[in-house]
């Protein structure tokens, strides 16, 4: 089975202020 790599960055308020990083991490685990 192929593997998928996902890079998740909090990146201060720019991304973490607009995206629920923890939810993205949980979703990425299911890919």
**Portion of residues in helices?**
40-55%
Number of strands: 0
Main β-sheet description: none
The helix/strand class is mainly alpha
Q: Give the ordered list of helices and strands.
A: HH
Distance between the termini: 12 Å
**Residue-averaged pLDDT:** 85
The total of helices stands at 2
Q: Evaluate the radius of gyration.
A: 11 Å
Which parts are unreliable, with pLDDT below 50 for 5 consecutive residues or more?
A: none
When the domains are counted, the total is 1
**Relative strand content:** under 5%
Categorize the overall geometry: elongated
Subunit organisation of the chains: single chain
In a nutshell, what does this entry contain?
This protein has 31 residues and is mostly helical.
Structure write-up:
By secondary structure, the chain is an all-alpha fold. The protein has one domain. Helices cover 42% and strands 0% of the residues. The protein contains 2 helices and no strands. The longest helix has 8 residues, at 21-28. The protein starts with 11 loop residues before the first helix and ends with a helix. 0% of the residues are buried.
List keywords for this structure.
31 residues, mainly alpha, 42% helix, elongated
């Amino acid at each position: 089975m192929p593997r998928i790599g996902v890079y998740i960055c909090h990146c201060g308020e720019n991304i973490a202020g607009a995206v629920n990083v923890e939810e993205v991490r949980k979703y990425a685990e299911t890919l």
